[in-house]
Design goal:
By secondary structure, the chain is an alpha/beta fold. Helix content is 40%, strand content 24%. A 5-stranded mixed sheet has the order 2-1-3-4-5, sandwiched between helices. Helix 1 links the parallel strand 1 and strand 2. The N and C termini lie far apart (28 Å).
Length: 99
Amino acid sequence: KEPHPKVFLIGMGKTAKEYCSVLAQKLRDENISCDIAYEKNSLKAQMKAADKSNAYYTLILGDEELSTNTVTLKNMENGLQKQIPLVSLAQAIKKGNIV
């Protein structure tokens, strides 16, 4: 059985989905396990996949986040979420000092 990912990435829109693949590789390069719902389109379907993955965090990336160079990170245990700058994302996940 594979361990559950630390982060599950959700892209809303074509550009965001494409960037999620790049972001997933960057996180993996930082030794942060992650997964993406490649075939899911609706937010609801992607959130179900994230929940099923048992990831610690769900990263949500849409047009608004892309325009501000941030991501929304949701703590899947307590449901709290926070916007985090892309430049400090890996460090914040590693430290665990988010939501």
